[in-house]
């Protein structure tokens, strides 16, 4: 929606939001607001919004975006996007734009209908401009894409060439204020001859085929309505002499604009924009064919119907005239509608009798309704056309606005619209006082003009009954229901009546009884069977409701509110009816009073038995209310005793327990109880129900055994064994559910508490229990050490009967932790095999990996280090590591390796998120995790052959679990790994981790030969051709250079850590890691050690410098570093002291020349205390042998440093 005034405008877009009540509603929010005028003194005169069809297959038939077309008083027409970006602007005429209209493609309802052209129409005071819709659609799409590319590249937008259009000069009318483009039409032969005779006389010639003409209707004054016909092909849309005059200019403009669109044109070639007013093309004269003359009447607005056959016109006399567009005559007029606003509603006939006829199906009919809004009267009316009555009237505000577009999507044709279901053009009424936008919907049956149409009369009666339901009047509702003739409508009316919550039961019973009596009095063959069964079943339910309500009232005067039975379609009696209702409300109504002791149990059961409802359905209702109201049941201890009484009473009903039941078989009756208990998520209520049913079944079996065998021996049956297993399973589930319901601590990731049941655990497979506990461990954010400690106490708790008491003085927190630990230990004792420590740790490890995979960054920040290293069994330890690496880490590891190898450096955060799916910090942490995982895999693989694979067991009562294979089973199915290949991947992960940690420029593949490159990311169990022997010296040199840069980067972080605590990395394991990598990469470790010592001295970290074996080479390097320090102190400081100048004069010429040749800029930390430099020179003299060539130079340096140190130092 667009609202504009003068030179400002506001664009509103539809958005969905949820109100306070939880309902979703559509609102219009401001998407753009600002000034549209660019020329001085111009203002907005007309606006339309045109939705453009999407070209994507996934959204076929839906709008892609909406173009806002704005006409100005200067004659300009500009096209904008939804965000206010200008796409096109063209001056079509120098007069103000009066009205903008649009036509879009309509799917023809009948074969042979001429396909209509689409496109907008612009009306000027004396001209009409029509633009071809297809070319405009392509131009707007190209301009929108070009504007988006230009905005992304930061370049200027190239203006596209002018649009191709038709411009007609409308003649023979004094004033024109509105128009409507009817489309292309072809006259019949009679009309062609009639027109030829009128225009050409008796001797006029007639062509063989009637020409195709575009019809335009205008309203205004002199005449009141004008009809124009432009013969297609008679003249060019763009005049030929104008096209020849500007041919060269237009060609250059086209080529320059096209080059800018395609990226050929450079900024240096762009021409400066010309501010001259563009040339306006002249219009092609078009004379009015005929009109409706009325000298005093002036038209104001015209609205064309969707089928292009009728049009509504308003005038200054307060009349609304209905025009027949084809014949050009007025066929109807309404008066008393000053300042009226018009719209059309076209409705299609529903899929009914016309399509289900035994002969060929008849085509669907369409009806048109004219919507008139009279603002001065504050009324909205809907009229049937052409001569139909008023079918609806609504009282609305006097300042509303009727919104009717009259077109659909632009960019649709006969090819692209195949298979589409276009939505009906809607008429909306906007109320500015409340901000509410209402739509007008009209049912098709209101267009039926036959007064004797039974269906139309029935629909009217149904509508009247709907109105009566607001204030129930039994006699009127009964008469209306009996007057309805059609069975389907009568059934719909009865269902709506029964669904009304305000109707009393007595009223519903009387109406249903009268209706059933009327059906019985008719011919049986003429009565609809479905309606008869519905009445019969509903009457039984109503009578049952009345009887049960009376029984509840006799027990205590606390009755529930009226609960209406929900109506359904074809049913077979009251028994089938209960299957379709919601169990919980009906079960509460029937049995809750009995469970609480407020109603007589035996009378309720007798009443239910008389209705003919099967005991199985009553049992389902009883169990549903028991299981759904768990919290209330647990508060009422006497409910268990009442439940036993009800189960015994129901099982004694006829048809409950079969008399021929064999005790060595499973009873279907009690199996129904077990099925309901094992499927329920209410573990406590299900366990109570199972215990009660177990006792009732045992008593039933005992009585049956005494009857059959006449023996004192206790009967042993399969049914009792089934109950023992069921009760044990429910006890285990209750213990597990209690653990899962423990709330997580604040600040943990957490999620919704899962609800488990016996059926869910059995269907979850053998690993379902461990998986549920692993998810609980993740929500509780338990550290691995704490979980391991709690599991170790499990054996101690099993050996001791008395639980350990918490120490006094520890406070409430220690008591909560103790209860927490006891709860976990008790669950593990109930599942000794499913929750063994190794299996639980394996599932916890996998759960944390899954959570990391959902959000790598959040996972790395919040998830503790649950690793496979906590597993004790070597086989499970190794195979779990392989399973995790293969199914999660290897893909991200490969992406990180490929991207780093392509870029050649540590990527930025934005590029990491785009290509790898995580930020740079998360990627660094992930690579560190890969290094640790591969290191764990190498350590575990060494001990696999010494032990046998574990046997995966499960508890006896849970042996029937069927479902997906557990994590342990999948892990043990993994093949063993090839140790050299794992070590090869460990080396690559370590190099990537170091490169990301210290932001080094390196391509990891350049550090490996061809064999090493081909071995990456193969199956870890495969045997690959690995690098062996001595490496190429050039490759070793590259590896050495990389490791030296790693050591330099680490020393830099150590200096940052010393200068600012907490601002740098304090990890001291990198030097040893570099030495280990050097051994794997065949780099001399002495070179790495010497470089590390020199870098530590270079950064001023003298106390951390370590001694190396190769003293000669180290001494020479430290001698140069000492000379750089002394050169900085004597020659390159900002304030040179007098003692320093005197010392410089006393130095030997050789030493002075050597110091001047030093470059202190290579030092990482030049301002080092002289005391540290003195200790460095002393160590240097100790390292250098006396026969060394630079030993004397070192002695001179020692003397110079000692002379330079002040006495206070």
TrEMBL record:
Chain residue ranges for the region called Disordered: 793-815
On the tree of life, the source organism's domain of life is Eukaryota
Pfam families per record = RAB3GAP2_C (PF14656), RAB3GAP2_N (PF14655)
Q: Which residues form the Rab3GAP regulatory subunit C-terminal domain?
A: 617-1185
Instruction: Tell me which UniProt keywords the record has, alphabetically.
Output: Cytoplasm, GTPase activation
Q: Where is the Rab3-GAP regulatory subunit N-terminal domain?
A: 1-403
Q: Which GO terms describe its molecular function?
A: GTPase activator activity
Q: Which cellular component terms (GO) are annotated to the entry?
A: cytoplasm
Q: Where in the cell is it found?
A: Cytoplasm
Q: Provide the family line.
A: Belongs to the Rab3-GAP regulatory subunit family.
* Protein's UniProt name: RAB3 GTPase activating protein subunit 2 (non-catalytic)
